[in-house]
Amino acid sequence: QQDTDPQIAALLLRRQWTLYSVSPLYRFSDSHLSGYARLLSAFIAAEKQKGLAVEIGVELDIKVVLSSFPDLKGCDQDQAALLVQLSSKSKSSTKNSEEKLVWSGWFCSVFGDYLPESVTEDFTCLPLFLVNGAESYTSIVGSWFQKTFDCCFRRLAISPLNLSWMAAIWTGCKLDKTSSAMELIFSVPCLPPLDISYSIHAEDANALWDTIQKTPGEITQEEVDVFMNSLYSHFHRHFRIHLSATKLMKVSTTIASAHCDGIVKFLQSQYLTQVLMLLTDLAVSQIE
Amino acid sequence: MQRRQSSKIPKLHLHAHHKHQTDLSAWRQRGTTDSEKTIQNHQSPDNQENDSKQGSLEEALSYFQRVPEHVSLKKDSVLQKNLATVESVALQRGLPPEGFEVLLNVALSGKLADTVNTRILMSLIPASVIPENSIVSSVSWLCVGKCSDKIQLLFLRWLITVFDFIDHKEQINALYGFFFYFLQDEKLCPYVCHVLYLLTRKENVLPFRIRKLLDLQSKMGMQPHLQALLSLYKLFHPELVTITLPGKVKAYFKNSEGPWKAAINAIRQKKQENSPVPLQLFLGTAQRQWRKRKWNSQMVVPASSTNENYLEDKTKQCVALSTTTEYFPVEQLQSFSQLLQNIHCLEFPAQMGSVLTNPLLLHYMNCKKDEAVNLRLHYWMGQTLEEECTWCVVDNSRQEEFKEFLETIYKAECFLQEGFSSCEEFLYKSLPLWDGSCCQSQVLKLVSWISINRFSEMKSLLYDPLAQLFFTSSLYFKCSVLESMRELLQNWLISHVIHLDSESDSQDHSLNSTLSGLVDAVAQLINFVGQISTAALRLESDITLLMHFILSFYEIVCDMYLQYNLPLLIMPPAGVFYPALLSMESVSLNRLCYIMYRYRTNLVAAKENYLEKKKAPQFRFSSKTYKEYNQYLIAMVGCLWTSNAFEKDSHPQGLHMDEELLKKTAVKEYKRSLNIVHHPALMIYALSFLQQAFPDDTTFNLSLIKGKKWDWYLEYLYANGLKGLKLFIESSINRISQASDHKAENVQE
């Protein structure tokens, strides 16, 4: 696992990202980013003051920057990732006013190319969209992309099955440093709602996984099931609760954490692309 | 009479030319000839009674041409009379084109009192068209400022109302700047905005105008008329200005109809003529989004809007400088003729989903056949269907909206005569989860447009989930499924015929491989319907309705070879055939007869074709089909004609019965007790026939119907609408050569 570009890592790590899937962007071009930024900032202004027209190109409250990150991808077929950043200027201070980042969103694809070659000229495949910031901005930026590039956004939920895969995969990731405990959160279907948090020492989980996984670099559904069931039976021995009857809501490890509502946090730069690949895969399967 | 009328017109125009000597006269000449032409076309020749009044209108017009200044209406009876003439003619027939220049000049020149000017303006009802030059001279009067504010305003309102009656708009558009100047007048501003809205073309949208409008906006705040004009500017130049329209606004222009509308409509109705349809406002974007919804909800089909991705266009123009094609904004596409005129410079809307509700764009999409276009629609529809599906997504309570959405897709599919692949995939994914009641009719209608492409998986994807619901649902649902299957079959067959036509020249080889696939798929579908029909007839107690849908399906099946050129015939299963044959309803029996007659015709044609050509032997009907047909035929003839169905029927599920058993029934003449006279569906006819033939006989002895009376009875049945029975008997029962055909055994008793 190679380290990700520190600039990208700084932007992505230790923030909470909400996941969306995006269908291919029609007629999007990397060479027009500043033009798009101008249109988008005017659009945001127009949406905020519905009914008042906004001239494009003038300086507005919200500044929009679109930037391309060609390094953040899995293979050559992947499109360069796109970062959209909205920052507001504080009105109080005068000229050298600081710009405050209020919202950011990533469009990216790590091994996510799924379109036939004949149409790649017209379409840009960036199936995974990660958002950090207020929902109101997500909605404005998303609508603008929908209108301008004729694409569709959908929230990307992570099923308990996929969460258990993540638990197994991330347990298997080796780290040089000592790692913190793995935590699984389950929800019990009862009233009032009851959550169960289940923490395992990273070394213990790791040792368990090593006994289960047969071929390094390859994981099967069966192995994931055995891993989870072992954890469940251990829990049952102590607390007489069948976790298999509850719903897995969240997985947190040293590598990353993921919530079933489609909210993730990246914690290790060296495994960033691997996690993004997993998420891209989920996004693609939601679009296809 | 036509000639007399038109001979007057040049005279009138001569006056006009003497009067005006402005520098605009050069093109006015052209305008005159134009209006002359139109008046010949538009004047109706049957206005004989009005001829005398026409004369006085001419007088009135020439009076107004020379009217001296400051004539008082109260004192001057000539003015009163002429004004009254103009008003009454205007209301009755509308004014001819040449009248407008004269009257507008008077009304706007300030020569007369405002009451007179108002009355003149109010009576400017066009009979046919309004010459452009009269509007141009009016604008010059406005600029001179001789008339009062009130008259200016009234003129603008009139102009808005009659805008579509103006014969040309080039010169008026050249005055765009003059109109724009009037925006500064606070009272006129809303009306000027409306005029500009009607007038604006792409080249009129310039940065300084946008800045001026934004200025006005900051002075006056949110004004609907400014919003409308600005959003039009945005449409033409999205890279210069943008605006989001609030959803609440009801009308962007107040009183846009004006007091003239009623009179114009009345005259239009009198003439029964299709005058130009007024241009619709195309601010559709805001109209349907008033309800609060998720931002990424796509279910509302987006309004057609021009592609805002202007940056792309710029680079294209840089590459090919010679191309000066201006895109025609899709919002303005309103008629088929517009589509034809602009088909070379049309661009698909920014959001492909909007084509769904726009038949013109569907036409365009259909002839464009662009892969990118289809893919955009594919993703949008697929994602939307999955996101909004009320039975797949939890907490989705917008069933009505989803229903509407499915209906929209279905309508578009009917329009295109083709299913959408994304919708098909959605059905395959969601049918196993479907409860069979949510959006029932929409889902089943969409099923009928599923394509044949994935026929090998059709059983698990379509038939199995449908069958599961079919067996456990109501009679109504069963009928709906059968109807949907009938339409599915028909759609496949029609597309096959079209395919055959378009590929008749190409290689036989490729055709054969697709044909065998189609034959397999169709056979699978027919067998599926046969199975569920058999089960349904056993499950349901009231089978009349069910039988109707089943027989409708087989009416297509029996004719596939001749009607759709498909080398496949499949007989209905015994579970369908016998219930229909022994039905209590003459309608069902009659239809079965017709179906059997068509089977016969198709089988005979196929056999002849095969013997003649010896071609394509792989598509010969199997001998099993012939055998089945013959078995059914024997049963049918036995049942309707020879009364020996109980002996002769050899079908394992047929009517064969042991003689011992029949004797036990205690029916006296059981050997002759099942034919067209005694058949339960036909007995009622036999009785009423007897009543008419032997009014005195009250014994109702059905066995009286024999010999000649048998023939009369047949005629009686035919006359009662049993046409299928007639076709069947005439084709399948040989009544003349008794010796050669066993079927005719007891024809002549």
From TrEMBL, chain A:
Keyword Transferase part of the UniProt annotation: no
Entries under InterPro entries matching the protein: CENP-L (IPR025204)
Subcellular location: Chromosome, Centromere; Nucleus
Domain of life, source organism: Eukaryota
GO cellular component, one term: nucleus
Keywords for the protein's UniProt record, in alphabetical order: Centromere, Chromosome, Nucleus
Similarity comment text for this entry: Belongs to the CENP-L/IML3 family.
Name by which UniProt lists this protein: Centromere protein L
Organism listed in the record: Upupa epops
Automatic annotation (TrEMBL), chain B:
GO terms under cellular component: inner kinetochore; nucleus
Bias type Basic residues, positions: 1-20
Places the protein is found: Chromosome, Centromere; Nucleus
This protein's name: CENPI protein
Chain residue ranges for the region called Disordered: 1-55
Keyword Metal-binding: no
Keywords: Centromere, Chromosome, Nucleus
Keyword Ligase belongs to the record: no
InterPro entries reported in the protein's UniProt record: CENP-I
Entry's family note: Belongs to the CENP-I/CTF3 family.
GO biological process per UniProt: CENP-A containing chromatin assembly; mitotic sister chromatid segregation
